[in-house]
Amino acid sequence: MPAPSLCPSPPLPHSQADRYDLSWDQQLNLAYVGAVPHGGIEQVRTHWLLELITARESAGQGLSYNFTHLDGYLDLLRENQLLPGFELMGSPSQRFTDFEDKRQVLAWKELVSLLARRYIGRYGLSYVSKWNFETWNEPDHHDFDNVTMTLQGFLNYYDACSEGLRAASPALRLGGPGDSFHPWPRSPLCWGLLEHCHNGTNFFTGELGVRLDYISLHKKGAGSSIYILEQEQATVQQIRRLFPKFADTPVYNDEADPLVGWALPQPWRADVTYAAMVVKVVAQHQNPPRANGSAALRPALLSNDNAFLSFHPHPFTQRTLTARFQVNDTEPPHVQLLRKPVLTAMALLALLDGRQLWAEVSRGGTVLDSNHTVGVLASAHLPAGPRDAWRATVLLYASDDTRAHAARAVPVTLRLLGVPRGPGEPRPGAGRGPRGTGRGAAGGGAAGVAPAAGSAGLVYVTLALDNPRCSPHGKWQRLGRPVFPTAEEFRRMRAAEDPVAEAPRPFPASGRLTLSVELRLPSLLLLHVCARPEKPPGPASGRPRPRRPGPATPAAPITEPLSLQVTRLRALPLTRGQVLLVWSDERVGSKCLWTYEIQFSADGEVYTPISRKPSTFNLFVFSPESAVTSGSYRVRAVDYWARPGPFSTRVHYVEVPAPSGPPRPSDCERC
Fold first, then answer.
1. What molecular function does GO assign, one term (predicted)?
2. For 315-335, what is the mean pLDDT?
3. Most buried one in 148, 250, 287, 514, CB count within 10 A?
4. Catalytic residue positions?
C-alpha cells in the first residue's frame, strides 16, 4: 500500500505562518489526523515551514535564527505521532531573495545543515531519517513570495538543500520537485531539475549528477479517479525514457486529489462520495487497469492535499478531512471539529496490511478492472507474537467518482475462499505452493493465507460506510444547517461519524464465506476476518509502576502493565461541558479490536464506563448532558472476543476554556 500522507498550508501572509500552524484550530485538526487507527495517516506535508523561522543579521556574526515556532510545530506533529513532509520552502524573515547570488546559496546550505542538525539532536536520527525532505512546492507555479527564482537559481537552491542535508547526515533523503510535470516546454523547472540531477554539475562539489532520492509529482483528477493514474503513467514513462538513471527512483504523487481547488465548495466532498472515491483511487494504484498496455505504476507514496481547515459558510464541502465550526455564540467563542467520512475511510484503509491478496470483481462471468463502479482490495497478515494472530481484510467500494446516486444500490455477492475449515484447522494444502492464491467470484473475492495451527475463535466483522447512516453532513442538513450547533446537535452529528459495525460472528467451519449485500452508491464495506490471539490486547497483570503524583488516587492499588496498552491519553478542552480525549494504539498490539472502553470518575475513585457506540478511532468527544467533565479518565481496548486489555494510565482533567493560541487568521481561499 502507498504510504498515506496529506498536506496543509497556512494562508497569506506566509510570514505569519505561526498564527495558523500553531493555532488551537490546527492543534485540534492534527489531533484528529493523528488519531486515525494503526498509523492510517503517517505524514503531514506542510507548506511554508521555513516561514516559522525568524532570522537576524548582526555585524561580525552573520545570520542567526530563532527556531521557536518551528520547534513548536514539529513538536506538535511528534506529539500526534505524525512525520513531517518537510518542504524546504520559505524565506526566514525574507532574508533570501535571489539564488543566483552565491552568498545566498552558501547561506542557504548552512541554514539547511543547521536545521537538520538541530532536529537530529532534538529527536534523534532514527526519527528524522524518516522525514521526506522536499524542494519548494510547485516551483513552476512561481509562488515564491519575495524570492526571485530563475531556473539556474532553482538548481543552485536544490544543490544547497542536498549538500546541507548531507553535511548533517547522509541518511537524510531529499526529493522533488513536487509539481505538475506538464509536457515540455511547460514546467521548465521540473524538467530542468531532472536534467540537472541526471547530467548536471553540482554547484558545491563539481561532480556530475546530483542525488535525487525520490521524484515527487502532482497529478489531480479533474473529477475523475482513473485520470490521476493515467497522468502518472504518462509522466513516469516520459521521465524514464528521457532519464534512464531514474528508472528505479521511487515516485511520489503527494497531491493526488480528485479535483483542484481545495476551497471550492463541492457537495460530494461533504459525505461518503469523497471517501469512496479516495479508496477507489488507492485501489486503482494497487490494481491498475492494463488496457493501455503500460507497465504498472505504484507510487511509493500517495498523498491527498486535504488537511486544510474549512471556513464558514462551507464547513463540510471543502477539500478537508474535518468540518470546522467556529462557534461564536459561547463565552468565550470556541471551535468544534467533526470527522468527515473521508477521514473515517482512512481508518478502514489502515486495516489493510501484510501482503496484498488476489481479488477480483466479475459481472456475468466477465472480470472487471478497477476502473468500474465496484472494486475490491484485500490483504492478509501473518502473526508476529502471542497477542497477534492471522487476519484477512477485504475492502469493497462502490463509487461513481464524484457522482452520488441516492436511490441506487448495487447487488454484490462476496465470496471469500481459502480460510481454514475451522478454528485452528489449516485448510488442505495450506503449506504447499504459493501462499495467498485462490478463487474469487461475482461481486468481489479474495484468497486467504491459512493461519497457523493452534489459532482459535475465527470470527468475522463487517463495517459499512454509507450516506444514509454515516454522514454528519446529512445530519447537519436535517437539523436545518445550524451555523452555531448546540451541544445536543453536535452529539447527533457525531453519532454518524463511525461506520455501522455488525457484531463479530463465527466464521463458517467450511472455510468459505458468502455474503450477499446491497452496496449503496456510494459506499464502503469492509470485511475483517480474525483468528483469536492467544492473549488479549495487552497483559492482564504486571508489576506495579511507581505512581505519579496527582489529585485523584484510586481506593485500591492499580497494577499497571509494562507494555501493550493504550498510551498517550490526553484531554483537550473544547468548551464548557465538552472535552476531547485522544490516545495512541501504538502498543495495543492488535488490529482485531471491537471498541475502546472509556471510563470516567468524577472523584478519582469510582470509575464508570461512558456509554457510546463501538468505535476504534483513537479520539472521542465527551459531551455529557450533565455537562460534568472535570475528573479522571482511562481507556482500554476490547477485542472481537470481548476481552479487555489493560487500562491506560489515567489522565486528570479540570475544565478550563480552550487555549486561544496565536490569533486566528482571517479566512482566505488562496493558501
1. hydrolase activity, hydrolyzing O-glycosyl compounds
2. 97
3. 287
4. 138
